[in-house]
Here is the input.
Amino acid sequence: MNAPTQGIDPAVFGPYLTRTRWFGGKGRDFTVSDVRRLGVLGDGDGDPTVDVLLVELTYADDGTTELYQVPLAYYTEPEHRLDHAFVGWWEDAEIGWVHAYDALHDRAATRLWLQAFGAAADGPAEAGGLTFHRLPGQEIDTEASGTLFTGEQSNSSIAFGEDSVLKLFRKVTPGPNPDITTHEVLTLADSPDVAHLYGWVEHGDTHLGMLQQFLRTATDGWDLALTSVRNLYADPELAPREAGGDFSGEAGRLGDTLREVHVVLHERLEQTTVSADFVAGQMNARLDAALRVVPLLEPHEPALRALFDRLAGLGDVAAQRVHGDLHLGQTLRTALGWKIVDFEGEPAKTLAERILPDSPWRDVAGMLRSFDYAAHAVERSHDELDEVALAELRTRGAEWVERNQRYFLAAYAGGDLTEDQRTLVTAYTADKAVYETVYETRNRPTWVDIPLAAVARIGAP
Ligand SMILES: Nc1ncnc2c1ncn2[C@@H]1O[C@H](COP(=O)(O)OP(=O)(O)O)[C@@H](O)[C@H]1O
Ligand SMILES: O=P(O)(O)O[C@H]1O[C@H](CO)[C@@H](O[C@H]2O[C@H](CO)[C@@H](O)[C@H](O)[C@H]2O)[C@H](O)[C@H]1O
Here is the structure.
């Protein structure tokens, strides 16, 4: 079947977007202001037609717009196996009834991307208006079957067997995506600390997705950390260093991995400085915006401003390409050590902000926050405990956090931090916690007390 000629009723996208995990505009009023076709995959010969669409949203609160990539798989009859991914149906003048499903849930549709990558082995290949690129020396299995990853994700990833992973970006910004450009640099440097990049797909100058090495033996760093905390909480007699699942060795190895990644990015991409005054200004601006969304931050505003003032006095700060949104869920423990994934930066930032050189301490701070999250996330599941037992649990959780932060930091820095480095990492940690209060308010309101408690500790003696 050809792609419908009449265009699609934009109204069908609103309800679908708000149902997905990856939609970042939850809780905000918006209208679908435009739907653009970027490309069409599939020759109709037994394949569904896949319409790669860019859906433009306009938010009611501030009039800003965002673009989301929503590839649709079209069928002339309902496909009940895809009911969970149903987007809409309409009558097309030439085709008749069109049943549209989110194509990334449809194996018959996702194989079209893999085949297009297969055709790009000897150089960039055009397919239906999209351009597919491959990196030299990276072989792929074009026959592997695709399975959509489930879980908490900002984008949509499809594993092709145990060979490769296709990540299609959902929120799209014109221009190069740092997940691709950073992975490209690390892959060409043969870094052992990331999944190697196999290729990417673009429309004009806009990156739409990337194909990378599937890490077969990977376990999520967040899950491993939660297991360690659970082991600790299971036996009230044990200190973190004695508990079966002590995480400190892994925390140290994570610090080594992050340092190695930073070294490659420092050597191969722009090295510069940013004025600490400018960075503090950004943190203050982010706090201004956060206060409008999370009024519970108000009592902590003076302590946060004082910390950012201290940062502003540091002069020039070394800056380079960084990860930008590092947390345990962005780390995978494989048989060959830790790997860091997802170099896209914070989903809430504009692309222009995300590709700016930044202090490596931002990434360090992200991991420090994540250790804190792990202990509190497990604590939340212990609502059977009375106040005394809960206080005891919290004390032991805080010991776990302190121990793993210390091992991580020591491995990363290779020694004690200077006074200026301490100020930097404390300010970045506070800035991250402020960001998290907004993220949680919008996405997981019952978790907001985790970053709020961290913000409260900043002003505490
Ligand atoms: N190369 C890979 N091999 C295996 N699993 C991966 C790979 N890359 C990412 N993952 C898994 O997919 C999840 C989502 O990946 P991520 O890049 O963080 O996507 P998103 O941008 O949607 O958050 C990760 O938490 C990890 O568990
Ligand atoms: O992985 P993403 O790029 O989508 O990152 C966003 O979502 C994360 C949650 O999945 C969020 O991370 C926060 O929660 C984590 C536990 O779920 C915790 O480990 C992190 O420290 C905490 O920041 C991340 O902030 C957000 O950008």
The CA atoms of residues 72 and 103 lie 5 Å apart. The two ends are 68 Å apart (CA to CA).
